[in-house]
# Entry
Amino acid sequence: MGKFKFLIILILALFLVCGIVMVVDAPSSFDDSVSLIPTSDSSVDADSSNCVNGTCLVDSNKTYDNSVKTVDKNNKDHKINYDSKYYVDDFIDGLYFCNDLEYAFKEAKAHNRNVMIIFDGAACIYCEYLKEGTLTDPSVQKEINENNILLITESSESPELFQQLEVYGTPTTVILDQDGNELGRIDGYEPPEEYLRDLKEINSH
# Structure
C-alpha cells in the first residue's frame, strides 16, 4: 500500500513539473506593447551624412500588409480617450502619439480622422528639426489634434511599412484615410508655416 501511495505522489509531482514547464515555455501572443507596426533587428537608420535638402535617405526591403477601414469627414468627434494604453503623451508636449497601427485606424474611423504617420530616423538631423521646431508649434499641434490620429516610427522599427508606403527618406509625413488610401505626404523637413499649410491642404481632401 505504501508503494502504491508513493507511485501516485510521484506521478502527480511529474504532472505538476510538466505543467509548470509548459506555462514557462509558452509564447506570449499579446501584451500591453503589442503593435501592428512591425519591429526588426535590422539596422536601416538614416546616416546623417546622407542628409541633404531637408531629407535623410533610408533603405528598407520588405513588404507590409496594412488593413484599414473607412472615413467620414463631415462629423468630427473630439472625445478621444488619450488615457488609453494605446496613446503616449511624453514624446512631444502637446501631442498624443498612438502606439498601435491597427488601433490608430479604428480610432480614425470612430472619430472621423485621418491617420498621420511620421517616419523618423535615428541619425536624421532634419527629423530633430521637425520634432523640436515644427511639431512643437501650437498651430501645427492644433491642426494635428483636430484632424489626425498620429503615429511616429523609425526606419529600423518598421522597414516593411517604409517599403509599402515607398518612403525613401526621413522625415516623411504620410497622411492616410481610413481605407488606407494616401491623401498626401510631406517629404523632408518644413518649418511650421509651410508644414501647417501643407497639412491643412492634405487634411481638407
